[in-house]
Each structure stands twice: as C-alpha cells, then as structure tokens.
Specification:
about 190 residues; 10 helices; about 0% strand
Length: about 190
C-alpha cells in the first residue's frame, strides 16, 4: 500500500507540483484520509519517503551499471550519467523545481546522495584513464563541471526558453562532456 500511495503522490505532484493535498491524494486512491495517514503521518513525510526511494533506486541502477561486465568503460560512464528514477512515473521538471524551492532540506539530501554516489563515477573515470580508454584528465574538475552544469540548468526559465526537459538537458551535458565540441577529424 505504501508504494501505491507513493506512486499516486508522484502523479499528483506531476499534475500540481508539491502543493497537492492529502485529501486530493486520498480521493485519487479511493481511500480515506485516515487510511492515508496510517501510512504517512504528513505530506512532508510522504514526500521524504519518495525522495528516499528515488535515491535508493538511482544508487541501485548505478551499481548495476558499474558491475555490468558487458559494457565498456565509455558506455558505463554514459549510462551512469544518464540514470533516471524508474521506480515511479517519470518526474515532471516542475516537481524538481518545486522540491528545490519548497523542500530545501530534501533537495539538500538528494544532492548529498549524489555526492555520496560520485565515487562510482570517479571509479569508472579513473579506471578508464588507467586503461587508456579516456585521456588524462583531472577528475575533480569533471565532478565540479557536472555539479555546476546540473545546478545551472535547474532553472525553469532556461528550460522553458530552450524548450527542453531536464532529462534532455542532462543528455546534452553528458554528450558534451564525453565527446567534447570539436569534430574528431578536426582535433589537433
């Protein structure tokens, strides 16, 4: 039942952002508010449970990519940078922006998790460098570039102006990071 409630809450958030009410959620589920509160004592606790589930989902996916022996290091890196939550319905960009504004503590928790999971990406980068798959780079700069890129594109006006979703924009950042901007035949 908890997972069903969390999934329905994600649907509510995709439609209304984080401003949905527990009453609206109960109606969507066809249950009483009392039943809803038996599982989650407040909307904030419910949203935190969703954030925790998404964090865990992303971690499990990244670990699976790192351990996939059928992938080369470049493909592992691409897939790890493109990991998106699969546990619930796709998350609307507005939800991410709302979460950042309305629940800064949960946003910080999600960012801390991303920092904690960096070691997986770091491991793939360093392995790729040592095996000659990637050129010598200063890995902490890559990390800083990624964090900066993500922080700068989580801007509703920028996404709207460019008619792109957050996911599409991350794809562009990943592509530029991995392949650069110079056509391979034109490189130096």
């Amino acid at each position: 039942m908890r997972l069903r409630i969390m999934s329905a809450a994600m649907e509510e958030m995709n439609e209304q952002g984080t401003r949905f009410t527990m009453g609206e959620l109960a109606t969507r589920l066809g249950i009483s508010k009392r039943t809803l509160y038996e599982h989650f004592e407040s909307k904030e606790v419910l949203i935190e449970a969703i954030v925790d589930a998404v964090i865990q989902d992303l971690e499990v996916q990244r670990i699976a990519v790192v351990n996939d022996t059928g992938l080369d290091l470049a493909e592992k890196l691409k897939r790890m940078l493109a990991v998106r939550p699969k546990l619930f319905v796709p998350v609307d960009d507005r939800v991410k922006l709302d979460l950042r504004r309305q629940f800064p503590g949960l946003w910080a928790k999600a960012n801390k998790s991303a920092e904690d999971q960096w070691f997986l990406i770091d491991r793939v980068l360093r392995e790729g460098i040592s095996e000659g798959c990637f050129r010598e780079i200063y890995v902490p700069v890559v990390k800083r570039m990624l964090r900066g890129a993500v922080d700068s594109i989580i801007d509703e006006e920028f996404l709207l102006e460019n008619k792109m979703s957050f996911h599409e924009m991350i794809g562009h950042v990943t592509d530029i990071l991995i392949y650069g901007i110079i056509v391979p035949e034109k490189r130096g």
